[in-house]
Amino acid sequence: MKREGPFPIVRQPIRDRAIQSLMAFWRVLPKKKWSAGVCCLVFLSLVLFMNTPSGSASDNEAQSLKELITKYDTSRCKECHEEIHAQWEKSHHARSIMDILMDGYLTKGVLSVKSPKEATRKNFPCFKCHFPQIEHASDQVASEIAEAILNKDQETMKKLNINCLVCHRDMGIVHGFPEADALYGATDVEEHPDDDYGKVHRSPVMTESVMCGQCHGLGPVFDFEYPVQCATLYGSYLHAYIPAGGAKTCQECHMEKADHTCPPNFKDRKDVSKRLAEALPMDVDAMFYRPQITPGKFVPTVVVDTRIISRAGHRIPDG
Ligand code: HEC
Ligand code: HEC
Ligand code: HEC
Ligand code: HEC
Ligand code: HEC
Q: Is 61 in contact with 5 (CB distance < 8 Å)?
């Protein structure tokens, strides 16, 4: 996944070049009042035009953590998608940076900082998958996040998660960038009654494993100055499960009837045990006998033949 999210990188030089050529044009013009007026108008409208975000709302980097949280606020989705929202709130996706021990990384090792103010987006390679919104944020936001993590500010950390807009916009389309006012789902909704996102486009990836594979990992992530490795389960799905004839998608096994709790939920030990028992059926054949190796001396012996089959679509455990 190569997503140069906030991409004024390309736009900036074009704008600068346009301004330079306009300035050159200005210099050769006769110094008459009317032409100066027209020129000013052309100049202003061009600059304004070039400052307008092209295509997607994601062009603008959030300058503060508050702004980023507001931009990704999904509390209103709850009004109409109550059940899905409640399911999601119970999922690991809803607490994606709570248990990842980033405070350790920020205090020791190559990603550490002396004070939160020093932290930039480079200190958070883990957020590629745990909080991908970071791509739409400035380094100032990264330092505010470092502060929240180092102060163990759970209230703020809870708000930094993988929510509806992450999956139904940023990760919901893999070719190109999301349209400013659209969501991406399994079906088209031409008139979606939400103030900001007035339509839902059907996106073919939404029901495919690659959607989840964007974060559930192929192997080590070499994109960064200091490569990291965490989840690698999508690699196992592609290279072991599929070649062995597996035909199910992640969604079919983990989001049955669009269940947004995405089990397993490791906080629910009982359910995890139940799921694992179903996933890893074990056949045991045992034979007990007492061979008489030396006359009159019986040695109790047992032969146990065990076969464990995995019904998962990948290796478990992962990570
Ligand atoms: C005022 C009510 C309302 C609000 C607010 C709302 N939705 Fe919807 N949404 C609907 C209705 C109605 C549909 C179409 C019927 C359905 O699939 O439930 C829909 C459909 C969808 C779909 C398409 C489902 C599919 O079949 O693939 C997605 C995705 C979605 N909404 C996400 C969201 C998200 C994310 C938010 C918050 C940003 C949101 N909605 C806010 C009412 C709403
Ligand atoms: C390629 C995407 C990716 C990157 C990069 C990544 N993670 Fe993860 N991480 C995941 C996914 C997906 C899971 C959950 C699924 C799993 O474990 O298979 C996870 C799970 C975890 C867990 C277990 C969470 C829990 O609730 O028990 C920890 C801890 C963790 N990651 C820490 C980190 C840290 C620290 C970094 C950076 C050094 C990092 N991860 C980088 C994708 C990633
Ligand atoms: C981890 C990614 C992820 C997150 C987070 C997520 N969704 Fe979804 N959502 C999906 C996928 C994938 C599907 C399609 C599932 C399928 O049809 O197989 C889906 C389907 C839906 C549907 C269609 C349900 C149906 O009955 O077909 C709605 C509506 C929806 N999501 C709304 C939301 C809302 C609202 C939120 C936030 C509370 C949210 N989603 C969060 C991935 C996500
Ligand atoms: C934006 C990145 C991202 C996307 C897209 C994503 N996940 Fe996750 N997922 C994560 C991270 C990160 C965690 C671990 C959160 C934690 O506990 O710290 C996780 C946790 C999970 C878990 C809980 C088990 C565990 O080890 O934590 C399941 C199951 C899961 N994801 C399935 C899916 C499925 C199925 C999809 C596709 C519909 C999907 N995910 C899409 C990042 C993602
Ligand atoms: C054939 C069904 C099947 C498919 C396909 C499948 N899974 Fe799983 N997955 C399982 C089972 C079974 C388990 C272990 C038992 C459980 O659900 O708790 C599991 C466990 C997991 C876990 C927890 C891993 C851990 O360390 O314990 C994550 C995360 C996960 N799957 C994500 C995915 C993603 C992402 C995909 C698609 C690339 C996927 N799964 C495809 C059945 C499947």
A: no
Domain end point (choices 176, 191, 207): 207
Distance from the alpha carbon of residue 11 to the mean position of ligand 2, in angstroms: 33
First to last CA, the chain: 19
pLDDT category of residue 35 using cuts at 50, 70 and 90: low
Q: For the chain, how long is the longest CA-to-CA vector?
A: 124
223 and 316 part of one domain: yes
- Would the CB of 80 count as within 6 Å of ligand 3? no
264 preceded by cis ω (within 30°)? yes
Of 229, 207, 208, nearest to 218 (Cα)? 229
φ/ψ of 230, rounded to 5, equals: -140, -95
Beta-strand relationship, 199-202 and 282-289: unpaired
> Any idea what DSSP says for residue 251?
H
Question: In this structure, are residues 163 and 72 in contact, taking their beta carbons and an 8 Å threshold?
Answer: yes
Print the domain residue range for 293.
209-319
Closest CA to 84 of 250, 258, 267, 212: 258
One domain, residues 80 and 15: no
Read off the pLDDT of residues 183-209 as tens digits, 9 standing for 90 and up.
999 999 999 999 999 999 999 999 999
Most informative mutation of 215, 234, 256 for ligand 4 (most atoms within 8 A of CB): 215
Q: What is the pLDDT of residues 267-313, one digit of tens each?
A: 999 999 999 999 999 999 999 999 998 999 999 999 999 999 999 99
Q: Closest ligand 1 atom, CA of 168?
A: 29
